[in-house]
Amino acid sequence: MQVKSIKEIESMLLEKKQLSATELKVLQEDERKGVQVLLKRFLRRQEKEKALQEQYNRMMAYENKCFSRGLNLVAGIDEAGRGPLAGPVVAAAVILNPDQPIIGLNDSKQLTKAQRKILVEQIKEHALSIGVGIVSAKEIDDLNIYQASKLAMEKAVQALDMTPYALLIDAMKINTPIPQVSIIKGDARSVSIAAASIIAKETRDEMMEELNRKYPGYDFHQHMGYGTKAHLEAIRRLGPCPEHRLSFAPFRTG
Q1: I need a surface site. Which of 7, 15, 190, 221 has the fewest CB within 10 A?
Q2: C-alpha–C-alpha distance, residues 180 and 157, integer Å
Q3: Which structural domain, as residue segments, surrounds residue 169?
Q4: 10 in any annotated domain
């Protein structure tokens, strides 16, 4: 067999998902240090991909239980923005296509911004339907954050362009005739809820970046409305803006 250059081997390994037993043996027996470095990198990548596939399979348990009962359209629901001092609470409902698995889905808080951006594109490309519900800071003050979060989730379900047969919701129950399952830490236990958490988080972050342009001085694009030291200092300096939740401390008195 013709000996490949290290550059040729690198290109081959970048393209391949699996190595045959013969290919693996040839590379293992190649004494060139560069080849061994490339092989170790390839095997590490395989291990990582295997772990992500196993994670995906585990996180399909709730969806598979629904599918086994004939509930073939399952929406995961989650929200972002309960804790901040400013901005809306945003919920998303996502119906994934089980025939188009999105490997790497996880709780949005466990992912980097770059990872979330990639997954948002994959969700938008492959999901059967996505709905988003938004409840403003003023409505949060009028309702309270718990009721506002429920309302945002209900709006997200209503925004879907197809009616799901079952809902998987992160630690909440909402007002709907659709069968629902509330799952504690659902964004780390269900791929559908994980997808919803990513859409909700990225949608809200984009809104906060826009609010930063509308209300300069608070740096909403950096802390996304959370009560960081810099944000609290900006509030002391500038006072609240129309996007601050006046029912939250430090605004609330008495």
Answers
A1: 15
A2: 12
A3: 61-200
A4: no
